[in-house]
Amino acid sequence: MKSTTSITERPPSARARAAAALARARRRTLALTDCLGEDELSAQHSPLMSPLVWDLAHIGNQEELWLVRRAGNRPALRPDLDPLYDAFRHPRADRPALPLLGPEAARRYLGEVREQALAVLDTADFDATGDPLPANGFVFGMLAQHEQQHDETMLATHQLRSGPAVLDAPAPPAAPPDAAGLPREVLVAAGPFEMGTSTEPWALDNERPAHTVDVPAFWLDTVPVTNAAYLDFIADGGYEDARWWTPEGLRHRRQAQLTAPLFWRRDGGTWLRRRFGRTEPVPLDEPVLHVCWYEADAYARWAGRRLPTEAEWEKAARHDPDAGRSRRYPWGDADPTPEHANLGQRHLQPAPAGGYPAGAAPSGARQLIGDVWEWTSSDFTPHPGFAAFPYREYSEVFFGPGHKVLRGGSFAVDEVACRGTFRNWDLPIRRQIFAGFRTARDAGPGEAR
After folding, report:
1. Maximum Cα–Cα distance across the chain
2. DSSP 8-state assignment for residue 71
3. FRET pair for 126, CA 20 to 30 Å: which of 34, 108, 175, 298?
4. Is the pTM of this model over 0.90?
5. Residues 16-39: pLDDT tens digits?
6. Which residues is 202 bridged to in the sheet?
């Protein structure tokens, strides 16, 4: 009789995980660029973004610098490209004027670098003790994350470009039956929790080290703010009412003439949005998307609430009060699956609010990972004990009050670049990014427990 005992599948090795992450990123990079002709790849579709062909070759140049030269100690393939594709040397608005590689030359370069990088991966010492870059495959994970972050940026460029749609994906799953009955907010009890990480092998420097933060009790929206709720803010004159805006926010609202989320327009009594080349009615049950920090903050004030701090967001997403520890993800320590979260450009829009019950946090909040990046009230600052690694320009140069923290990822984020400790940041005026928000409020004395 055949045994029915199941055999637990061994998790992939760090080397296999690195190879899979690199391959997945490259498939996405090529899918985002092969769908357009040379003219559109070389054009600048917005001064906020690079030409797509710049991103294409920059991905290859970073892979050459770190995987071929640094990890593999191999000769440079194209040292002449280093100045052209240095992101800090050339602002995005200036990049179209550079003597960039054309699309076909960029693809050839990308392929040549990848061939060398995979050869380095085959022989890299993942157990290295003297060099933290190859340990646990960190440098390969870092480059997979870098490529996926540029893929997300390229997807934002697709959203900004005019012209017919070239991308397609199935709609996300409908909201589950219990979504309509979810409470508006969940209570997160007071107390300390472990924020950040010292053990996640591919965590980036700004996620480190783990440290204890004591967070007072607070209430947090169960789901992100929806388009329907945001339309109430618009209808109530929220954009025109100076009471809801910080002085900087009011000044920006007037200068930029903000009246609704980016890509929205009104046609009679109907609100429409443009989404990757298609015009459609704004879906009321989706999380609001393409709002800047100032808009999110104004909405929260109008609603009599506030944006959560970064520590509050992470505690709500990771802290397991029964186990007394922080999880990797809201649902536990297992890597994301399609049942947990809307990630990886699997869909080209957020899922309806209340979706993915399997991905709920112990706090009861849903969709904390995937769907939309969520603005927090916090400035981007280092964790206590921060050490820049492997270079200052990844995080350290952005620390300070000029950048606000976003957490949780979006439908445009791959799982390799999204976890419970992952930190994103941007200027408070940015709207082309795939950002929404949820709100919070302090718990009263009788509510804190």
Report:
1. 76
2. I
3. 108
4. yes
5. 999 999 999 999 999 999 999 999
6. none
